[in-house]
Design brief:
This protein is mostly helical. The chain contains 10 helices and no strands.
């Protein structure tokens, strides 16, 4: 474990230029470097300001605003991570609910009832696949080869709702045929209800992004804060601000980019949840249970 962590640290430091955040910010980093050099040259060579100039005191403002900016970035990152973690908990609950439903049906259904067993083995596994495709807004990745039913039409309807309705209708038929008892029907009904609740929670996360005005304000704050740094720090650092200011911008802007990357946990980025893999694992486990 120690060797692996060491390699990860080595890769993160040596190949920093290959990271997504660095590649996205590279043009802006160069721009900040040029602006810093221009301000330094203007103050030192053209205006020839001395250390006694009042402009030097602008660093006091940066100290105060730096504390405010750090609080905003912490809140921004925590809010984005809360969304990511909430989505992970919902898919964990989906895994557990699917397993519980499969375990109960395996116990309730007669061993010789291969028709119903085949149906529920496929239908339960179909729900996470439908939810996965619904959250990705792409049903082209959704394979219906495992189960065919006239009620299922994922091109024009809410896929997860259709699968949940199909499950409930068939469970209700089991109850009418007296294959399951009242208590067993209630137990299974609760699991199907939980599936719909999980879907609703995932929709809430997907359809309620961080307010645009808040995110836009942080971006403006970062740019204005960083672009004014050379005015005061040039007196103590000279032309070294050409390197320091872009580095500060990279750190602050990277935090905002990371928050943007994880606030939508159902996408296809490397930081997003592996919901496709989770859906396939559920299919595998349900198949083993029923």
């Amino acid at each position: 474990m120690t060797i692996y962590n060491t390699k990860e640290w080595f890769k993160a430091v040596v190949f920093i230029h290959k990271t997504d955040t660095f590649r996205k910010l590279f043009p802006y980093i160069i721009f900040m470097g040029l602006v810093s050099w221009g301000i330094a040259y203007w103050e030192l060579e053209s205006l020839k300001l001395s250390d006694k100039s009042w402009v030097k005191n602008i660093t006091t403002v940066h100290s105060l605003l730096g504390f405010v900016l750090s609080l905003l970035l912490v809140f921004r990152t925590n809010s984005a991570y809360d969304r990511w973690w909430e989505a992970r908990k919902q898919w964990g609950a989906l895994t557990n609910t699917s397993r519980n439903l499969a375990i109960k049906l395996n116990a309730y259904l007669p061993k010789e009832d291969t028709k119903n067993r085949n149906f529920y083995r496929k239908a339960i596994a179909l729900y996470p696949q439908a939810l996965f495709s619904f959250l990705r807004s792409d049903y082209s990745t959704f394979m219906l080869d495992d189960i065919q039913h006239p009620e299922l039409n994922f091109d024009s309807k809410h896929g997860p709702n259709q699968v949940a309705s199909l499950l409930y209708n068939n469970v209700n038929q089991l109850y009418k045929d007296k294959i399951i008892t009242d208590a067993q029907f209630i137990n299974i009904n609760q699991d199907i209800t939980d599936l719909t609740n999980i879907c609703g929670a995932c929709e809430r996360i997907k359809n309620t992004p961080i307010p645009y005005s808040y995110s836009f304000f942080i971006k403006k704050f970062i740019v204005l804060y960083v672009i004014t740094l050379p005015f005061g720090f040039v007196f103590s650092m000279g032309y070294f601000v050409t390197l320091v200011v872009p580095f500060i911008f990279y750190i602050l802007a990277s935090l905002e980019l990371i928050a943007e990357a994880i606030e939508d946990p159902f996408g296809t980025d490397a930081d997003d949840l592996p919901i496709e893999k989770i859906a396939l694992n559920i299919k595998k486990h349900v198949g083993e249970l029923i």
